[in-house]
TrEMBL record:
Residues 15-135 form the Cyclic nucleotide-binding domain. It comes from Piscinibacter koreensis. Keywords: DNA-binding, Transcription, Transcription regulation. This is Crp/Fnr family transcriptional regulator. SMART domains: cNMP (SM00100), HTH_CRP (SM00419). The keyword Transmembrane does not apply. The lineage of its organism: Bacteria, Pseudomonadati, Pseudomonadota, Betaproteobacteria, Burkholderiales.
């Protein structure tokens, strides 16, 4: 990554894919690169950071806490994802904490540069709005799951949401720990372990040696 210019990095980010060369160069001149260590906080709930953070490599978790103070995973961010735009738009503190799950490289666009870029780049403004709508839909789906589905149903839906098609089956191409799954669905690790064991015994999901999960049949 060190050999790539900011413009090269910008061109690899889907958020900036529709920009002209001149627009992309303007943003490239405004961003800075930063590396976050594993476990380091990127943005913190209740605080302002005044920047847009764009993931180049690595992985981050979007976290909050339930009424008992237990950690809940709202989302997992990967290369090409971004965070911080909501606070930049409404000037309110962050509604969740984002923590690097792995060593993560990011591009950071400050508030002043962000405010200047939006009116100058309609495609960027549209991409930001589309991202906000997608997050709202995801939040609605999570609320629906918590309100209408039992733990079994929430686990099944979460597995489906995390999966991607590979041939004629759905696969989660990363290790899914019972603890992390419990934090996503809002249940105890023990309950999630029982649900996963039942799904595996019925042949509906299969956990491979590398930790990937193959979904055979889930109808939620």
């Amino acid at each position: 990554m060190a050999m790539l210019s900011n413009l090269d990095l910008i061109r690899r980010v889907p958020l900036f894919s529709l920009l002209t060369n001149e627009q992309a160069q303007g943003i490239a001149d405004s961003v800075v690169k930063r590396r976050f260590r594993r476990g380091e906080i990127v943005v913190e709930h209740g605080k302002k950071s005044n920047a847009l953070f764009i993931l180049l490599t690595g992985r981050c978790r979007v976290l909050t806490a339930d009424s008992r103070g237990r950690e809940v995973i709202l989302a997992v961010l990967q290369s090409g994802d971004y965070v911080g735009e909501m606070s930049l738009i409404d000037n309110e503190p962050h509604s969740a904490t984002v923590r690097a799950e792995l060593q993560t490289d990011m591009l950071i666009l400050g508030r002043a540069e962000f405010a200047r870029c939006l009116p100058e780049n309609s495609s960027l403004s549209y991409a930001i709005m589309r991202g906000l709508v997608q997050r709202l839909r995801s939040a609605d789906r999570q609320i629906e799951s918590l309100a209408l589905l039992d733990v079994y149903g929430r686990v099944a839906r979460t597995l489906l949401d995390m999966s991607e098609m590979e041939g004629d089956q759905k696969v989660i191409r990363s290790k899914v720990s019972r603890q992390d799954l419990a934090k996503v669905v809002g249940a105890s690790r023990e309950m999630v372990s029982r649900v996963m064991k039942d799904l595996e015994s019925r042949g509906m999901v299969q956990t491979q040696e590398n930790g990937w999960v193959v979904i055979k049949e889930l109808g939620t």
